[in-house]
Amino acid sequence: MSASTRTTTTRKVLGSLGVLGAAAAVAGLGTFGTFTDSTTPITTEVASGTVDIDVAGAGHAVPVTTAGFVPGDSLTRSVTLTNKGTSALSSVTLGTTATVSSILDTNATNGLQLTVKSCSQAWTQGGTATAPVYTCAGTVTDLGTTRVVSDRTLAGLNSLAPGGVDHLTFTISLPTTADNAYAGKSSTLSLVFTGTQRAAGAR
Q1: Residue 63 preceded by cis peptide, ω within 30
Q2: Is the pLDDT of residue 82 over 60?
Q3: What are residue 169's DSSP bridge partners?
Q4: What is the pLDDT of residue 60?
Q5: How many CA atoms lie within 13 A of 46 on its CB side?
Q6: Does residue 76 contact residue 169 with C-beta atoms inside 8 Å?
Q7: Which of 104, 112, 153, 157 could form a disulfide linkage to 148, CB 3.0–4.6 angstroms apart?
Q8: Is the CA virtual torsion 24, 28, 33, 36 positive or negative?
Q9: Residue 76, class by beta-carbon neighbours within 10 Å (0-12 exposed, 13-18 middle, 19+ buried)?
Q10: Is 117 exposed, middle or buried (0-12, 13-18, 19+ CB in 10 A)?
């Protein structure tokens, strides 16, 4: 191969590299040629609701301590349940636990029973300081009787709605079927009302 032929080939190769380099440079410059635009801000405010349910003793003191219970005895106290939050509730439950336990709360049939009632207006209190009794001048709704240690949903309460108020009584009783096995026993009970927010959804 002559010297002149080699020179021509070399020039062709260099010329090709130069074209590729120029193309790459043009491609690189093209990445900075994008136009963009943005909308003006849309202000969206989301305020969360509050769940605040409160129970207050109405009249004689709650909590309650009693002694000398015999089969057939009962004690009743009234409470006012109020939804002080801004959100509706899907449910209100009453949970009762025994912090000190005995056969009085472990036996579902002959042990202590819990009855909850609602009055459409405030209960009228009578009786004595140690043994109050309550009457309702409005409509009474029986919310059911269960063993004293239980979890129950209280249906149809006004306090499911913000600002709603319920006038309740709870009665703890020892059935007449309790025998000597229940004598001299003691239980300490804790009653807690729990409000659960309404179901979430599109707003």
Answers
A1: yes
A2: yes
A3: 78, 117
A4: 47
A5: 4
A6: yes
A7: 112
A8: positive
A9: buried
A10: buried
Size of the chain in residues = 203
Identify the DSSP state of 162. Answer: T
Q: Report residue 14's pLDDT band, with 50, 70 and 90 as the boundaries.
A: very low
Domain locations in the chain as residue ranges: 53-197
Listed residue (106, 91, 109) closest to 145, CA to CA: 109
When pLDDT is averaged across residues 192-201 and rounded to a whole number, the result is 85
Rounded to 5, what percent of the chain is helix, strand, coil? Answer: 20, 35, 45
- The pairing of strands 124-127 and 74-83 is unpaired
Torsion angle, CA of 13/15/21/26, rounded to 10 degrees? -150
Confirm if 82 and 159 have CB atoms less than 8 A apart: yes
pLDDT for residue 6 is more than 80: no
